[in-house]
# Entry
Amino acid sequence: MDIEKIRKDFPILSRIVRDRPLVYLDNAATTQKPSAVIEAISGLYRNYNANVHRGVYLLAEEATQAYEDSREAVRRFINAGSTEEVVFTRNATEALNLVAYTWADANIRAGDEIIVTIMEHHSNYVPWFRLARRKGAVIKIVPSRKDGELDMDAFGSMLSDRTKLVGIAHMSNVFGTINPVREMVSLAHTRGAAVVVDGAQSAPHMKIDVRGMDCDFFALSGHKMLGPAGIGVLYAKSSYLKSMEPFMSGGEMILRVTLEDVVYNDLPWKFEAGTPNYEGAIGLKAAIEYLEALGMDTVEAYERELTEHALRSMKTVPDIFLYGPSDPAKKGGIIAFNIKGVHSHDIGTILDSEGIAIRAGHHCAQPLMIDCGVSAMARASFYFYNTEQEIDMLVKALKKAKEMFGHVA
Ligand code: 7TS
# Structure
């Protein structure tokens, strides 16, 4: 990969912040956008903006075609069998809530069990927690082992004929752990449970094959994979979508409405009430094409090298503790850490003064923070446009933070 050339595709990466060149290491929160994405969105507004699925005039046909072409791009990117199975949502959170309020609401009853992992982002925990409260269902949590990987023995023994749903983060947004979803899906299916995979952190960084994975639902967010904010995807097997009631209702999701009856639209539009975020979908298509041109295997391999370099060099910071797997083959480019004697927010502030953007806090994964016995962590997360030099700058700034704050025994 020609990183210098790639970096030129991202206008924001040449920004100066706090008198320094920007070092953007908060890619798990959101990613920066290449010119191709920015231009796809401005091209829509300059040339063919119209509401989709309604006008008979040329602009409306072009906008509708572009919106549906985006759906096909997503289908290809995640290897879904049909565009019927690709529902546009606002983000991964909305995709997960869609499943909670439709399929799960109709199928989970008192005494049923829902299994999720300790690594879940709140968006793949809170909807299930609320559902369990509403229905009198039971939530079970797959713990992680000391090495930051899931305890698969515990998962195996938790599964039972009462398990109705299993929720798994494909890649943890804190530990970076890549969880063995394929194996977990096949175990869950032997018990007849549906599996929801939260792909918000995996889809941007590795090849996704929902058919190979055999998951029943898969959620992703466009903004974490070079696309705009406000567009996400729910993949669901059509056998599920067919049996599900709509989530939201109104325009777009109907075929016919009389005062006596309502006939829902075909898949996937039955789940897309109201004017959709076609701007977002068009931007997401440009993002997908950018990623496909690089090749997801290349992206993953380069990020693994970066992660390996980061794990090795971050360890040289005195009193640093790195969370998650230490084996770069087991994780993506996300490294959460704490430095003894330095609060993670102080780390964030010192790094900011050096032009380095990282995240500090609970990372919307408070159960995992509690499990680790901390209230907050600092986190650096990489994308393919980052470089080893940027990681070296991070490490240098961390050593400075330790010197300034960390003289506590
Ligand atoms: N699932 C995972 C694993 C995530 O990391 C996130 C966002 C979400 C779901 C929700 O995505 P959204 O687009 O619907 O908000 N994670 C983070 C993060 O780690 N820092 O900021 C947002």
